[in-house]
C-alpha cells in the first residue's frame, strides 16, 4: 500500500459517500444517472467475485463490502424508493449503456492476462469501469443547473482513478514484477474521459460560478 | 501467489 493508492481509495470512498449522503438526506437523485450507477454495481460485482475466497487484508475486504453495498443500495434507492425515484429524470438519462456492456465483455474475452472465468470477469470489470461514467457525463451536459453534490461526486470519482495512475507509476518503479498493461491502459482511458469535466469543474471553481457543461 | 498478490488493488 502506498500513499497514492490510499488517497485513491479514500477519494473513491468519499465519492460514494457523497452520493449516498445526497440521496439519503435530501431524498433526491436529480442529475444522477441511474445507468452509470448500474454499470458501477456491475463493475464491483464482476471484480469482487473472490471477496470471500481470496482474503488479502481486512482493509481490502471491508472496502470491497462498502463499494458493493453502496453501489447496489444507490441503484435500489433510485429504482424503488418511492420518494427518490420521483426525482430521477429517466427521459434525460437515455445513454444506451447496454451497448457498453457487450463490447467490454467481448474485449475481455479477447484481451486478458489469463483465459479463466475469474480473470476474464476481472478484465471485463476494468473495461466497463473505464466507460461507466459516460451516461453520467451525457446527463450532466443535459442538466441545466448541476447541484454541488453531484458535481463533487463526479469530480471525486474521476480523481480516484487519477490517483491510482500515480499508484501504478510508484509500484512500477518500486516492485520489479509489477506490470499490468491492461489495468494501466483502461485506467488511463477512464481518466482521460474526465478531462473536459475536470476543465469545466476547475473553471467553475476558479471563477466561483455554477458548474455548467456545454452541450 | 504472484497473481494473487497482484490482485491486491480494489
Automatic annotation (TrEMBL), chain A:
Q: GO: which molecular function terms?
A: ER retention sequence binding
Tell whether Membrane is among the UniProt keywords.
Answer: yes
Compartment(s) of residence: Endoplasmic reticulum membrane
PROSITE patterns, from UniProt? ER_LUMEN_RECEPTOR_1 (PS00951), ER_LUMEN_RECEPTOR_2 (PS00952)
State the annotated membrane topology for this chain. Answer: Multi-pass membrane protein
Query: PANTHER family given for it?
Result: ER LUMEN PROTEIN RETAINING RECEPTOR
Q: Indicate where this protein is primarily found.
A: endoplasmic reticulum
Q: Which UniProt keywords apply?
A: Endoplasmic reticulum, ER-Golgi transport, Membrane, Protein transport, Receptor, Transmembrane, Transmembrane helix, Transport
> Where along the sequence do coiled-coil regions lie?
none
Question: Which source organism?
Answer: Cicer arietinum (Chickpea)
Entry's transmembrane regions: 55-77, 98-115, 121-140, 152-170, 182-202
Kindly state a single biological-process term from the GO annotations of this entry: vesicle-mediated transport
Q: Which domain of life is it from?
A: Eukaryota
Q: Does the keyword Transferase apply?
A: no
GO cellular component terms, semicolon-separated: endoplasmic reticulum membrane
Q: According to the entry, what is the taxonomic lineage of the organism?
A: Eukaryota, Viridiplantae, Streptophyta, Embryophyta, Tracheophyta
The record's family statement is: Belongs to the ERD2 family.
Q: Which Pfam families match?
A: ER_lumen_recept
Protein name (database record) = ER lumen protein-retaining receptor
Q: Which InterPro entries match?
A: ER_ret_rcpt
